[in-house]
Amino acid sequence: MKTYGGYSDIIVVDEHFTVRIPDSLPLDACAPMLCAGISVYSPLRSHGLDKPGMHVGVVGLGGLGHMAVKFAKAMGVKVTVISTSPSKKKDAIERLGADTFLFSHDPDEMQSAVSTLDGIIDTVTGFHPLLPLLGLLKYNGKLVIVGGPDKLELPVPLLLFGAKAVVGCFVGGMKETQDMLNFAAEHNITADIETISIDNANTALERLEKGDVRYRFVIDVGNTLKSSS
To answer: For residue 79, is pLDDT > 90?
Structure first.
């Protein structure tokens, strides 16, 4: 089955698979939330990591990670960003409002946070060790994988003795997506974006491979798409 219309200015869709964008949300900064936003909102809600006063870690500060920080903070959760890039500390704390930051390649920093997190939202797409992350969880803590790496190594003994869980979560349903948009409007949450013309799509892909984006590109189709007729 092929789906057409991704770069159209107008398409016709089944009403059961539409959501209402609240008037207060700008369309460009709202668009990535229909993917990155719901991908992190859903696990926060469905895995019970949305309770005020809880302490949640967010692994990776990219398109998904920055949305996870925003939603978790709006839910009243204490947030620690965990990253392999120490240069992202300022963005995490000063721009996005995270409470603390851990450079995951610093053993002392990681050790200082052992057994402090109720849960972790892991947004990393590539292979990475889970052992250091599981060590950050409290007893009965939960590590939620949303980044979709092809393969991970699971340290089973740490799960057994700590009653910890590793689970996955892949976006959310239509009702939850609408709930996410309503919550975002209520708390003035949008994605951090860079708007580009469709002529610059290939350049944007090249920059994306280098991690040169904060934090999502959005193509202005309506104003830059040229008609073929």
So the answer is: yes
Q: Are residues 100 and 197 in the same domain?
A: no
Amino acid at 154: L
Residues 122 and 79 both lie in one domain: yes
**Count of domains observed in the chain:** 2
The rounded distance, in Å, linking the Cα atoms of 81 and 68 is: 10
pTM: 0.92
Do 104 and 209 lie in one domain? The reply is: no
What are the CA-CA distances from residue 42 to residues 36, 46, 140, 162, 179 (Å)? Answer: 10, 6, 20, 25, 10
For 128, the 3-state DSSP assignment is: coil
End-to-end CA distance of the chain: 26
User: Cβ atoms within 10 A of the Cβ of 209, count?
Assistant: 8
What are the E-state strand segments in the chain? Answer: 55-59, 78-83, 100-103, 117-122, 137-145, 165-168, 193-196, 216-219
DSSP type of residue 127: -
pLDDT of amino acid 222: 78
